[in-house]
Amino acid sequence: ATVTSTPILDSGYVYAGSNDGTLLQLEAESGDEQNASQLDAAIYGQPSVGRHVYALTADGTLSAREQDDLDEDWRLETAGEEIRSSQIAQYTSVYIVTDAVYEVNVFDGAVNSEMDYGGAAGATPLYNGRLYAGDAGGSFYAFDESTGDTHWTYDADSAVTSATVDDSGRI
After folding, report:
1. Do 42 and 18 form a contact (C-beta atoms < 8 A)?
2. How many beta carbons lie within 10 A of that of residue 152, not counting itself?
3. Which of 36, 65, 88, 93 has a 20 to 30 A CA-CA distance from 107?
């Protein structure tokens, strides 16, 4: 398998996803495999760590895994296809962009809110109470984190497939 996600480091472990759907947990010091868990589809986006280890697969499934053994605690299946974005874990919510923008409860995987928009393609940075997402149609959005309302929309010339926000608020 090929590691296809950007790895993330947390509490002495490196987490990464692969094109065959394997979620890896490696010891950061030695590189030894601590755990590996098989998901149903490729993992292109960076896993995130919060209450669980979260991985969003290419078929639009968000999986919450226990940190100690990567056993699945819960999953949320959406209608997304060829998802290449990452999820964002923040406090009691995980945010994902698939066929819509979802705010998901970290404790049980219940959908807290769902925001429809032009279709998924881009990343999901969260900054200063706003969630940013792009779509395949060339639009870039800023959603209010708590209400789901669209704060603004920017029309780009082509698909928005990634986004970053730095600590000064620049996109």
Report:
1. yes
2. 10
3. 36
Work out the percent of the chain whose per-residue pLDDT is above 90.
45
Phi, psi of 19 (to 5 degrees): -70, -15
- Counting Cβ atoms within 10 Å, is residue 135 exposed (0-12), middle (13-18) or buried (19+)? buried
pLDDT in tens, 15-46: 999 999 999 999 999 999 999 999 999 998 88
- Contacts (Cβ under 8 Å, ≥6 apart) of 26: 13, 14, 15, 16, 32, 33, 34
**Quick one: DSSP state of residue 28?**
T
What token pair was written down for 59? 């078929």
Sign of the CA dihedral running 14, 109, 87, 2: positive
> What are the tokens at 136?
């395949």
